[in-house]
Design goal:
4 helices, elongated, about 25% strand, alpha+beta, 3-stranded antiparallel β-sheet
Length: about 170
């Protein structure tokens, strides 16, 4: 049973598309000027086309989503889907990186026993071994609070003793 599903558009993948078109423009400027620039132009065309395709794939509506279910949650980032059980993860907290006094990045972090969710980079950067790939239209604080509510509710439900009547 699926409790809730969140989807998000991540604007940073649109930068790939913009950079891809910039490379295509550089390729068209270099084409025909000399043999050496023709080789560079071909590289610009291939790199630009690849960046545009990757950016478009990650901007598809289903490429970044969070599904909250009774026994856990799953999140998708691009082509990878990761499922974590509620009892395999710690409490969720928000993490922010400030750059020049402005919030540059907001994430929801947690520790997980699931090796698919763990990352050494996340551990070094945020202090937790797993992060959600976005905030899915909510602030990081709101999403962390909502995830903690679902986690607490489901763990309490699983730990309730079964009553028997004799």
């Amino acid at each position: 049973m699926q409790l809730q599903k969140y989807q998000a558009f991540q604007w940073n993948w649109s930068l790939f598309i913009v950079l891809g078109f910039a490379l295509l423009g550089m390729g068209s400027q270099a084409m025909g000027a000399s043999k050496l620039l023709d080789i560079a132009a071909t590289g610009f065309y291939i790199g630009g086309g690849t960046m545009i395709m990757v950016g478009l794939m990650y901007m598809l509506p289903s490429s970044n989503s969070l599904e909250i279910e009774e026994d856990g949650f799953s999140y998708r980032s691009g082509w990878q889907r990761i499922f974590c059980r509620w009892d395999q993860c710690s409490e969720f907290s928000s993490w922010q990186k400030n750059l020049f006094g402005m919030t540059a990045n907001e994430l929801v972090t947690f520790n997980s026993d699931n090796p698919a969710a763990q990352s050494k980079t996340n551990q070094k950067t945020t202090g937790c071994n797993a992060v959600l790939p976005g905030t899915f239209g909510l602030s990081a604080d709101d999403l962390a609070e909502k995830m903690n509510q679902y986690r607490k509710m489901q763990i309490n439900r699983q730990q309730k003793p079964v009553q028997t009547f004799l």
